[in-house]
Amino acid sequence: MTNSRMIYGAASLLFAAVAAGWDIKIRRIPNLLTAAALVTGLMLHLLCDGWKGMLASLIAAVIAGAIFLLFFIAGGMGGGDVKLIAAIACITGLQWTGYLLIFTSLVGGAMALVLAVARGSLFRTLANMFSLLRHHLALGLTPHPELNVENRATLRLPYAMAIAAGSFLTFYLQKVQG
């Protein structure tokens, strides 16, 4: 594993872990933290890979942020999560952004499943998923009137934990692949 990849992995893990701590504690991810992570990613790639590397890391941030923005628009995710995944992708780099997104999504889905089972609401959650699917097929990305992140009665999880786990798994894959 090259030194720069080790630096990117350590930085992404650090920022994601701090964000997860904030998300667990206060259910918010500070803008200052995500801005610092984004700037750190850009500067690290500029220093290690030059202008092309910095541009590629910016593209990674835009791709990851755009994908998560769709979930935010649909009412299924908070804005802090969108900014965090963009910043972590910026640090991780374009080459590894797909892995970051896949691992984060898989961990997030597993966390949601565990939470639903632990709260005894698995069948209600599955029914809600079908209700969301029908809603979005009919009305596009508009938030569901009841099943959205603003409704405190719905199951909610600190998604920064999933992003931190996705960051860890991406870093682990980088180490395994050398």
UniProtKB/TrEMBL annotation:
| Gene3D superfamilies the record matches | 1.20.120.1220
Q: One of this protein's GO BP terms?
A: signal peptide processing
Which Pfam family is one of those matched by this entry? Peptidase_A24
A single MF term (Gene Ontology): aspartic-type endopeptidase activity
Give the EC number: 3.4.23.43
Q: Return the GO cellular component terms, semicolon-separated.
A: plasma membrane
Q: Which InterPro entries match?
A: Prepilin_IV_endopep_pep (IPR000045), Prepilin_peptidase/N-MTase (IPR050882)
Carries keyword Transmembrane helix?
yes
Q: Which UniProt keywords apply?
A: Hydrolase, Membrane, Transmembrane, Transmembrane helix
Q: What transmembrane ranges does the database entry give?
A: 29-48, 55-78
Where in this chain does the record put each Prepilin type IV endopeptidase peptidase domain? 13-113
PANTHER family, sorted? PREPILIN LEADER PEPTIDASE_N-METHYLTRANSFERASE-RELATED (PTHR30487:SF0), TYPE 4 PREPILIN-LIKE PROTEINS LEADER PEPTIDE-PROCESSING ENZYME (PTHR30487)
Q: Which family does it belong to?
A: Belongs to the peptidase A24 family.
The name on file for this protein is: Prepilin peptidase CpaA
Biological source species: Silvibacterium bohemicum
